[in-house]
Amino acid sequence: MKSSIRVAATLSILLLTQLSFGQLLDWVYPMGNGWRNNIEAVHVDSAGNVYTVGFGNGVLDLDPGPGVDAYDFIGYRGAYIQKFDSSGAYLWGKPLTSVGYSATIDDLVVDKQGNVLILGYFSSFTDFDPGSGTQVLGGGGIIHVLLKLDHLGNFRWVINYGGVDVRAITTDDASNVYVVGAFASIVDFDPGPDTSYFFAAGTDGFVLKLDSAKNFQWLVQQGGEYLDAQDIVVAKNGSVNVLGNISGAPSMVDVDPGPGQFLEDVGFGSRSTYLLQLDDGGDFEDFFVVRSLSTGISANCHARALAQDKLGNTFVVGQVVEGIDLDMTDGEDIAWFNGYGTFICKMNHRNEYQWGIIQDVTAEGLVVDSIGNPYIMGTYGSNVDFDPGPGTHFEGNWYGNSFIQKLGTHGDFLGVQTFQGDYCRGRDMALDPWANLYVVGEFEVTTDFDPGPGVYSLTPQSTLSDGFIYRSRPCTPTAITTQQVTGCNDYTVNGIAYDTSGIYVQTLGRSGSCDSVLIVDLTIEALDTTVSINADTLIANAQGATYQWMSCGWGYNAIPGATNQELVIPIVGYYAVEINLNGCIDTSACIFITQVPEMDVVEELMLYPNPTNNYASVSLTLSKATAIEMEVYNSAGQRVAHLGSGMHAQGNHTFSFNVADWRQGMYLLVLKTEQGIVREQFSVIR
What we know:
By secondary structure, the chain is an all-beta fold. It is built from no helices and 57 strands.
């Protein structure tokens, strides 16, 4: 039965900026000099310092402010690192001097000690010491490199992985370094004087752990040619979460990289996305799959990004073609998409699937704020509805430009920002502790970077592209309505149903670039509708409520007078109880009673005449003195008469009752005692 809801609403203005997506442009720095330039990655540390990595050509001033810090990038795509303080003031920049075609950056992180780690590949001689020393690598083809600098940009160490395809890095609270990617043939993964050789017959994925001084800790090899790693996150408890792809696998695959076996149905043939969980020692914990449901050369889903919030909830973003099962656990949430789109799904800290959505965009990045709201960055074409719920929010009229979409903790739409200009592409994004949003990338034509009704347009100096570093700050919503709600089992507002306690946000409207939002502070007090059975008695387990027992064989029919927490079962049949507690009403499941125990205190029972049309008499013999309650029920299980109750002595007893006004039909006389019940069926005729 439908639950009722008790609601108490209050109006207040709160500075809960993270519960909406009203953003104001703070600043945007273009990076250009007439040559192709772009910014590839951004990271913000706990103090709000901002680090970026980009590429430059020719003489480029790394200080976007009034100062000058210029370097001559002789080769094509020379890499550089920048650092800004929390206000956006330029602190330092460091070039990586190279000759010829230089670099592509895969990842950038900053550890707890403020050290900067950069992952990328380089194809020409490059000096990885940006100071007075030299650390030249490369020149013999593409090499994959992990570089570490301190908080001032001074060289700490560099690792040359040669032809190993390194794709993502992260660090933990102890500043240990984790690297994921793929390799072939024989590779020594120990960067120190010792050796740790691993062999791959084809191309295998790997997860590598180093300490902060680049000493080898362990490596997990993902064999079988089917698995390759794309992204990695280390949880607060030390659990290592690896996102990757499964390609061309048979249906069942052993996904435990250790000596154990864990068979997983990954779907046959096409590419699917996986999430591997390891403990802090690299041992297998669990494995989950976002399955592609289509077959054929173009049917697949492809991992893009992985993130976790402070509560340990996991978010996965990827690309999908055609069919997909969004539920990466043992359940099922099937979705079909006509063409190429983006999926995002969420799993809680207990590894239980929460929700998933598909949208007509191309994803590039993912971050999660301090209260668990995911931000998805990517590019889109024209006329895209960014609201995955029952509402609509269309953006369009531009081709290939960037968006940043914010969703609530339950996948509900909070807002979207777009950069208004063709071929403006965000490459990476980050959030600082104050919910300021940073986006870096490149733009090829005049672009409006103001997310609100204002205009802040920049035109690139190059005919190819300029890089940009963008920051927006959260603004105070125009109005916030807070509803403090207590629900019984679920609560629906503006067409969205919630069935779990929590804080939920809905965007009600927009005034300029700031939002008017509704915050639903919901407490679910689900009623206990379970029922226990004790011999001939049904017992509602909910305490302190009011009760109404019902027969439920054909619909729900209240049993007159059956309003106690317990019900002595009168006859074989279907029973349920309606619970009413603090204004919440719910009904138990129907319980089928197939047998009712008889009592032996009644040695003989006779009802006559049977059938009858006027009076009926009851004759019984008791083996001992007993308290008896006598009732009559109709064929629907409803009580139609209470004939009396009281103590009766041992021996013979006779009772009579009038049925002259009763309808024709079958009836049941029920005698109840502490030892049980006894029944006698009779009929009334007309």
